[in-house]
Design brief:
The complex is a heterodimer of chains A (357) and B (324). Chain A is built from 10 helices and 8 strands. Chain A has 357 residues and is of the alpha/beta class. In chain A, helix 6 links the parallel strand 3 and strand 4. In chain A, helix 1 crosses helix 2 and helix 2 runs parallel beside helix 7. The N and C termini of chain B lie far apart (44 Å). Chain B has 12 helices and 14 strands. Classes of the chains: A alpha/beta (357), B alpha/beta (324).
């Protein structure tokens, strides 16, 4: 360390000043959320955590192929929004979409089977980790090239209005997405058309391997851009499911009432690297440690204890979730590899792929 | 029976389909109040209102994204991209999202979109507003590609594209806009994936698309004077591709020429040449010859643009020489 100069911090990001989380807001204990809903959110966060850990374990066993982007540390965002949505609302997510798919109620078995490339996968093995979709649960897709899906979420919101429903589209993306053109095209169109869409930036401070503040003109990559589109600047503690649930309810209801789009910046942190190939050694150790101490799940566990939920109830939930994840694992491992009969199907609506007679 | 221009046929076809399906909507730049920069959507906003004919910002990604999101949630959409060159600005939406989502999701989503766009040269607009981009879109699995050459085909193929549950790129040729044709009364509906023999002949087959069709027909007239009987095929849709009509014609005439406005490399004719070589090689009496725009960005000057794009003279001379 002694031989390193200040300039090295410009590219050796581990030497930079750590960006620390805001302290936990104990006042959020008093947000008026029924205990039943809080237990649901505890269970969902446990499911997302245990599922992602299992996905990682299965990768280490060489059963999960390709790449995968885990939501470890970011579970509270998917959980809070997931609970605030109605079953026929629409979710759009990025390649980091396992949590958002499960949070809409998709069965973990077929989701895990998809990661394993099996025939019983939720996409029949054709999409993989980065394209999880479950239309029956309103999960309209995971889009792996950032930006585009914000514009697609607009279309779903536009369609809801044309069809006369009160459906809302909720679109999740990372901080890195705020610097691509489609983000700005989408925000502008949503604003001028007053669309029932909610854009949720999960700001985990790192655009892949680069600190977002180094490459963004404003401090809060989403919230500080909101004014450009006539929207309110909203920042929420993305590691506190109650805070997320509260703001989600507000912005979703606003959209449902026909009062237009919102842009929410949820501040959070990914516990691991960008993708499975990334050990994430480029981050200041003090930063990683500070955010680990603000891990959303132990924090939520403590809150529930403070609110009088018995430890035993929480242990039971954890164990139930562990059993579900074990069952999902067995389901996925038991799936066959997709056969050749699937290769040429589902390019066209007629089920086939013929391009000539 | 009414005479319509190619330009008016676009609005005519859209109006026919909007009357049939009240859920169908359209969006694009300058399409409502202005009636489109090529005047292909004149009168539609007056008939169907600004909720169904929507002006957008200059945001091609936002246009195709909104189209996709609406289409995959139950609202069929026509999206206009003003010039086909601008497809490059929203290629991610077209190539990666719209084209691939059905396959990637194991068939969970259906995306009934028609992307209408003004394609091709002849307007002296230079290299960024004159390209023939059919090869850009033809190479993407999951997109259908249509390029009509007559007003009647504009209506019939547009109707077929709109009713098709899959994404279709519909290429309207800028230099055909003023062409006129009598249009019969009643509903007009054609079929994708069907090429048309527009002139019968016995000595060679000339396969052409869009603006190249009338040029190939005029060349065939001149060839007739020289004693060469050319059969001309209007390919009409590149995906799905009616190879049987082409293969049948080549088996009969034993020679094939393609006339393509796209720059040379990977033009649609190369795929047809490959299929012909593979499947009816022994019926051929000579090489398959591609007549294309050279592999250059299209120049603006009238004299240069006319040299670049296959002309009646070049088609006639090439066929004469290579048949000799």
């Amino acid at each position: 360390m002694s031989t390193q100069t200040k300039d090295e911090g410009l590219y050796d990001y581990a030497l930079r000043e750590p960006r620390l989380p805001a302290p936990e807001n104990r006042e959020n204990d008093r947000i008026g959320i029924p205990t039943e809903a809080r237990l649901e959110m505890y269970e969902m966060q446990q499911l997302l955590r245990q599922f992602e850990k299992r996905a990682y374990d299965l990768f280490l066993q060489n059963l999960v192929k390709g790449t995968s982007h885990l939501s470890l540390g970011q579970e509270a965002v998917a959980t809070g929004f997931g609970l605030a949505m109605k079953p026929d609302d629409f979710t759009f997510a990025t390649y980091r979409g396992h949590a958002h798919t499960l949070a809409r109620g998709a069965d973990p078995g077929p989701v895990l089977a998809e990661l394993l490339g099996r025939e019983n996968g939720i996409l029949k093995g054709k999409g993989g980790s980065m394209h999880l979709t479950s239309v029956e649960h309103g999960m309209m897709g995971s889009y792996a090239i950032i930006g585009a899906h914000l514009t697609i979420a607009n279309g779903a919101a536009w369609s809801a209005r044309m069809r006369g429903t009160d459906q809302v589209a909720v679109c999740f993306f990372g901080d890195g997405t705020t610097n691509i053109g489609a983000f700005h095209e989408a925000l502008n169109l949503a604003a001028i058309w007053d669309l029932p869409v909610v854009f949720v930036c999960e700001n985990n401070l790192w655009m892949e391997y680069t600190p977002i503040d180094l490459i963004t003109a404003v401090a809060n990559p989403a919230a500080d851009r909101a004014a450009s589109y006539g929207l309110e600047s909203i920042v929420v503690d993305g590691n506190d499911a109650d805070a997320v649930y509260q703001i989600a309810g507000q912005v979703i209801q606003r959209a449902r009432r026909g009062e237009g789009p919102s842009l929410v910046e949820a501040q959070t942190y990914r516990e691991q690297g960008h993708s499975r190939a990334d050990p994430a050694k480029y981050r200041p150790p003090a930063e990683v440690q500070a955010w680990k101490e603000r891990d959303p799940i132990p924090m939520y566990h403590e809150r529930l204890l403070r609110l009088g939920v018995p430890e035993g109830d929480l242990s039971t939930i954890q164990q139930d979730v562990a059993r579900r994840v074990d069952e999902a694992t067995e389901f996925a491992k038991g799936g066959a590899m997709p056969g050749e009969e699937h290769l040429l199907t589902d390019v066209w609506a007629d089920g086939g792929s013929a391009w000539r007679n | 029976m009414a005479e319509l221009t190619y330009r008016n046929a676009v609005a005519y076809g859209i109006a026919q389909e909007m009357r049939r399906d009240p859920s169908l909507v359209m969006l694009g730049e300058d399409i409502a109040g202005a009636g489109g920069v090529f005047k292909t959507t004149v009168g539609l906003v007056e008939q169907f209102g600004p909720d169904r004919i929507r002006d957008t910002p200059i945001s091609e990604q936002a246009i195709l994204g909104a189209a996709m999101g609406a289409a995959m949630t139950g609202v069929p959409v026509i999206a206009e991209i003003m010039f086909s060159d601008f497809i490059a600005v929203c290629f991610d939406l077209l190539a990666n999202e719209i084209a691939k989502s059905r396959y990637m999701t194991g068939g969970q989503v259906t995306i009934p979109i028609v992307v209408r766009t003004a394609n091709g040269g002849g307007s002296r607009f230079g290299a960024q507003h004159s390209q023939s981009v059919e090869n850009w879109v033809m190479m993407i699995p999951g997109l259908k590609v249509v390029a009509p050459s007559t007003p009647l085909d504009v209506i019939g193929l547009l109707a077929a594209s709109i009713r098709d549950p899959d994404p279709v790129v519909f290429l309207e040729h800028k230099s055909l806009m003023a062409d006129k044709q009598d249009i019969p009364e009643g509903e007009i509906l054609d079929e994708l994936g069907v090429a048309r023999v527009v002139r019968e002949g016995t000595d060679c087959t000339i396969a052409a698309l869009a603006l190249m069709v009338p040029r190939a027909l005029e060349a065939a007239d001149r060839l007739e004077d020289q004693g060469i009987s050319a059969e001309v095929i209007d390919v009409r849709t590149l995906v799905p591709l009616d190879t049987q009509t082409i293969l049948g014609s080549v088996s009969k005439t034993s020679r094939l020429f393609t006339v393509e406005e796209n720059p040379r490399l990977c033009g649609w004719g190369a795929e047809i040449a490959s299929i012909v070589a593979d499947e009816v090689f022994w019926d051929l009496d000579g090489p398959v010859v591609r007549i294309t725009t050279p592999h250059i960005p299209l120049p603006a000057a009238e004299a240069l643009e006319d040299m670049a794009i296959p002309s009646v003279d070049r088609i006639t001379e090439t066929v004469t020489k290579r048949m000799g």
